[in-house]
Amino acid sequence: MISPLTALILVLVTGFLLRAPIGFSMIASGVAYLVLKGQDLGMVAEQILNGLYNSYVLLAVPLFILAANIMNAGTVSDRLFDFCAILVGRFRGGLAQVNILVSVVFAGMSGSAIADAAGPGLISIKQMLKRPEYTPGFAGAIVAAAATLGPIIPPSIPLVIYGLVSGASVGALFLGGVLPGVLMAVLLMIAVHIIARQRNMPREDRIPLAEWPAICYRGALPLSIPVVLLTGIYTGAFTPTEAAAVAAFQALVLAGVIYRALTWRSLFNVILESTRASSVITLIIAGSFVMNYAFTAEGVPQMLANWVLSMHFSKIQFLLMVNVLFLALGCVMDISVLLLVFVPILLPVASILHIDLVHFGVMVVLNMMIGLIHPPFGMLLFVINALTGIKIKDMMIEGWLFLLMLLLLLLSITLFPQIVLWLPQSMGYVTN
Q1: Which position among 41, 336, 342, 368 has the lowest Cβ density within 10 Å, counted as fewest Cβ atoms?
Q2: Does residue 322 belong to any structural domain of this protein?
Q3: Is 429 left (phi over 0), alpha (psi -120 to 50) or beta?
Q4: 432 is a domain residue
Q5: Total structural domains within the chain
Q6: Domain that holds residue 273
Q7: Given a cut of 80, is residue 430 above it in pLDDT?
Q8: How far is CA 193 from the centre of its chain?
Q9: Residue 394 and residue 363: Cα distance in Å, rounded?
C-alpha cells in the first residue's frame, strides 16, 4: 500500500497532467492524504477556514487585482505612455525604452506582471509594430521582460503572498524590491540600447516643448497612485492591506469620475474579471493550507533541513541551489503554487542558515519572474501570444539578452544581499 504522502503527490501530479484547476488538484491531494492517514476529512475545512480567516494581509490580493484591472480598462496606460515618451523617447530604440519606463511606473500601481503585459504592454506592442525597425519578436520580448518588473517594484501581489507564508513584514518586502526593481529597469534599458545601436533603431520625434505641460498634467494623476500608496504605508497612515483598498478607490475615481473612461457595463466587467482572478488565487491558497498541513505532519521541512545540514551547505550554496530549483520549476508551474507549496518547505532551512527572510523573498520572487519569460513554458510569452499573435519562437529568439540581464541581476542579489536589504534597514525595518 502506498504511503499517504506518496498518494498526495500522485493525485497532485495527476491533476496537473489532466489540466484540472490547480486549486482543486491541491485540495484533492490533501483529501487523499487524510483518507490514507485515517484522519477526519473535516480537517480539510478546518485548515482552509483557519488559514483564510487568520490572514488579514490576504485581503490585499483581490484589491490590487481590482486596481490593476480598473487602470487597464481606463485610459491610464495611454497617459503614462505619453508622459514617459517625454523622458526617454529620444533614446535610440525609443519605443522600447518608453515601454520599460511605463512598466516601472505601472508596477507601482498594480503589482501584477500579467496586468502590465495586458495593459501598457499591449499599447507598446501596437506602437512598435507600426515601425519596420521593430520586429514582432523583439516587441513581444521586451514587453514580456519589462512586465516582470510588476511584482518586484512595490506594491507586489507575489510579495504579499510570500509575506503571508513566511511571516516577513510586507512593508520591508516592498522596500526590499525597490532597488532590485530599479536595477532591472536599468539593465533592460542597457540591453535595448545595445540592440538598438546594432540595428540602427530610430529615436522618437522630439515632442514640442509647448506640449509638455499638457502631457505632464495628463500623467500627473496616475503617477500620484504609487506616491500615495508608498507614502501612506511608510508614514503609518495605513497598512499594506489598506493601501490596496486605497489604490483600488483612487483608480476608480481617476478612471470613472475624472477621466470618464468607465461605463457601468465596463465597470461590471472589471469587477467580474477581478472576482474571477481573485477566486483562482484564493482557491490555490486554500489548497496550499491543506498541503502544508500534510507536509508539516510528515516532517518534510525538517527532513529537508536535516539533509541540507548533513551536506554542510553554506548560505550561498543553498541559495544557488534554490535558484536552480525555482528557475526550473518557474517555467512549468504557477507562481502561486511555488510560493504556497515549495517556499514553506524551504523556510526552515533558510532560518537554520540565518538567511534573511526579506532577502530570500525578493530573490525567490525574482526567480519566478524570470520563469515567466523563460522558454519553453514562460507564461508571459503565452499571454502575449494570445493577445497579439506574435509567435513564441520569435520572442524566445529575440529575448535572450533580456533574459541574460535578469539572470545577472539574480546572481548579484544572491551574492550581495545588501542590494535587497539596504533600503529596508535604512528605513528602520529589522529584517532578521
Answers
A1: 41
A2: yes
A3: beta
A4: no
A5: 1
A6: 4-426
A7: no
A8: 25
A9: 28
